């Protein structure tokens, strides 16, 4: 289903020392593989670079690893398989995993499948988990062109619940396609987090991370995260200085164990994100939970002493 490096046989095994790193960035994109193939058509990269006012839009896996190693951080790295929506083969998941395996001290690979490919998506998800060793999966309903609450996709959610790995799903406003005619066909309504509330309710064993402050549906996302034990929010895609007031207010109370650090790198750099985050009125005791402990719990990792690192 995805482009592969046949015969490599690389299986990812983490060597991240979760007890000594300072943070885990739960939202980092790798959008070009070692063959130069990009995740989406070229006009998406041009539009999103303009929207986010970013420079280098497609850094290599080696460059990403060095950036996070220098900052004593780990990073969850993924791409998007949207082959049906745009008739465009994604960059290679196998190549992504191989790169993360080379840098397993700082990089953690998540997989991606196209839900619109039906039974093939289930088979591919199982392959990525069992043969490649991915530690979760990434979805983008607007870019992939599907309603996650549609019963058509329930076999996929059931399969992922059985596999037992978390998913990250885009919610809220889209930088992808921004400013293009018709938003390049991207439908914002598929990114309403409430569409994932059905999934969270019907598959309670599936951990769901709502990617980004879910503007203009932030209250809906807050409600979901406080209502359902299996729902979290990553804080990527927006500079913290633009976070909705309700999100900032609840970060130190009911959401303190439900929020995880994420940047959306390369669209937002960790340095830029952290500088803005430092100025937010968030309880100092909560910051370590957001920066690392909540993510450690989601990933099911253990610290260097071999104990569950829940920091609770």
Structural commentary:
- There is one protein chain.
- The chain is of the alpha/beta class.
- It has a 5-stranded parallel β-sheet with strand order 4-5-6-7-8. It has a 3-stranded parallel β-sheet with strand order 1-2-3, with helices on both faces.
- The longest helix has 14 residues, at 119-132.
- The chain has helices at 42-52, 61-70, 83-86, 93-102, 119-132, 141-144, 154-163, 194-202, 218-227, 245-251, 270-278, 287-299, and strands at residues 23-29, 73-78, 107-109, 137-139, 167-170, 208-211, 231-234, 259-260.
- Written as H for each helix and E for each strand, in order along the chain, the element string is EHHEHHEHEHHEHEHEHEHH
Low-pLDDT segments, ≥5 res: 1-7, 303-312
Please compute the radius of gyration using only Cα atoms.
Answer: 18 Å
What is the total tally of β strands?
8
Name the average pLDDT. Answer: 90
Question: End-to-end distance, in Å?
Answer: 41 Å
Largest sheet: 5 strands, parallel
Query: What is the percent of helical residues?
Result: 25-40%
Q: Largest beta sheet: what is the strand line-up?
A: 4-5-6-7-8
Instruction: Briefly note the structural class of the backbone.
Output: alpha/beta
- Which band does the percent of strand residues land in? 5-15%
Q: What is the overall shape?
A: globular
Total number of helices: 12
């Amino acid at each position: 289903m995805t482009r592969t490096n046949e015969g490599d046989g690389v299986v990812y095994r983490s060597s991240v020392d979760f007890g000594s790193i300072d943070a885990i960035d739960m939202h980092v994109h790798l959008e070009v593989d070692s063959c130069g193939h990009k995740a989406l058509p070229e006009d998406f990269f041009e539009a999103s670079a303009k929207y986010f006012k970013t420079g280098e839009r497609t850094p290599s896996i080696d460059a990403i690893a060095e950036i996070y190693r220098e900052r004593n951080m780990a990073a969850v790295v993924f791409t998007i398989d949207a082959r049906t929506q745009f008739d465009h083969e994604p960059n290679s998941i196998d190549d992504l995993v191989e790169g993360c395996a080379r840098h397993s001290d700082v990089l953690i690979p998540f997989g991606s499948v196209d839900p619109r490919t039906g039974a093939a998506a289930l088979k591919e998800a199982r392959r990525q988990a069992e043969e490649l060793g991915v530690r979760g999966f990434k979805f983008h309903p607007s870019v992939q062109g599907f309603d996650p609450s549609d019963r058509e996709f329930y076999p996929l959610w059931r399969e992922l619940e059985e596999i037992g790995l978390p998913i990250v799903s885009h919610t809220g406003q889209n930088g992808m396609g921004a400013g293009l005619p018709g938003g390049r066909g991207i439908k914002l309504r598929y990114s309403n987090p409430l569409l994932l509330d059905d999934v969270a309710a019907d598959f309670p064993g599936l951990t769901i991370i709502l990617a980004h402050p879910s503007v203009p549906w932030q209250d809906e996302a807050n409600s979901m995260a406080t209502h359902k034990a299996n729902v979290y929010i990553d804080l990527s895609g927006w500079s913290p200085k633009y976070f909705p007031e309700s999100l900032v207010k609840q970060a130190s109370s009911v959401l303190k164990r439900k929020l995880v650090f994420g940047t959306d790198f390369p669209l937002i750099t960790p340095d830029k994100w952290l500088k803005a985050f430092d100025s937010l009125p968030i309880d100092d005791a909560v910051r370590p939970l957001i920066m690392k402990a909540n993510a450690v719990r989601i990933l099911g990792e253990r610290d260097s002493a071999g104990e569950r690192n829940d920091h609770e």
